Amino acid sequence: MTHHALRTPLLAATALLALASQLTPAAAQVGRSTLTLANGPVVLSYPTDAPTQSLRYGPFEIQAAPDAPPRPAAAPRRLVVMSHGTAGSALPDQALASALAEAGFVVAQPLHAGDNYQDASQAGPVAFRRRPQEVVQLIDALAAHPAWGPRLALDRVGVHGMSAGGVTGLALAGAQWRTLSLVQHCQQHLRQDLGFCFNGALTTEQQAARQASFDHARDVPEAYLPPELTRWQGGRTPPAGQPDADPRPDPRIAVVTLAVPVAAIFSAESLARIRIPVGVLGADRDEVLAPDFHSRHVLRHCGTCTSLGELKGGGHFDVLWPWPPEVATQVAAQQVRGGLPVPGFDAAQRVAAQARIVEFHRRALQPQP
Fold first, then answer.
1. Tell me, what DSSP letter sits at residue 322?
2. Region labeled Disordered — which residues (predicted)?
3. Would 48 disulfide with which of 31, 55, 212, 242, CB 3.0-4.6 Å?
């Protein structure tokens, strides 16, 4: 065959590729902006056509287009709200937020009051009660926002929660917890779940006081315990005679994903009442939240929950990226057990797990390209 004979189909193929490139939109970049709403700052990640750049926030470096205009879409975009862990922020989960934005979502990351990197004074049950309400208020605020409200389809919303953010996600899915469940869990499983039960109690004196508080409630009839211990929180209690009633506190929540979630405090009965899809990612070397009492507890009792896998050889914070070494060291120093990245962990597992999380939301919500 002559060179001339090859040339015609080659030119035709080149022309077709050029035409296809004109008809197929280029892959979206990730825009990143911060809104100040009634409950505080909210970081938004979203598709944009503006070029990304390296942005540095202290030790964190991310890739995004700061304050870029959102990419036009044929219809309003779906929202995923991400709930950070204890004393956290939006930055350590930016890789997942970016992956969701690249898939067509708008991602909102609130800074939970009293349980963030600037102020963790109310971490634990106080913040656990408030976090789901903050997400609902955020959705309402975005619906009323003059610029973002018209860009969002908020009848079906996704939620992702990491660590303490798992309480946010499970409560919004309809599961229920109470502080007494935390106390009873730690009465029975203190040594096996030390990282959870002694969270925030680093000294011998603090741990002794914490254990004394657990023991103080031992064998006391519930009727004699204070209501803040016994009151159920999170999802709705089914009315009498209506066991299949929707347990969600907000019916707009349509899908939830969880990464190494706080979950031991949720009752098995309420987990079984969940009706929406929930995806659960664990880490098999998590020493901060022992998987058997947390991520696997959800999967054992929730019929609509699906395992998104466990990071093999991964620890609690190996699900996050970026995670600078100096931040990892500081955070691990505040853990009773575990907390450092596991040496030799294969980061490709995290990338694959994030893709599964994105796909889980995509199947449920079908975002605009």
1. S
2. 225-250
3. 31
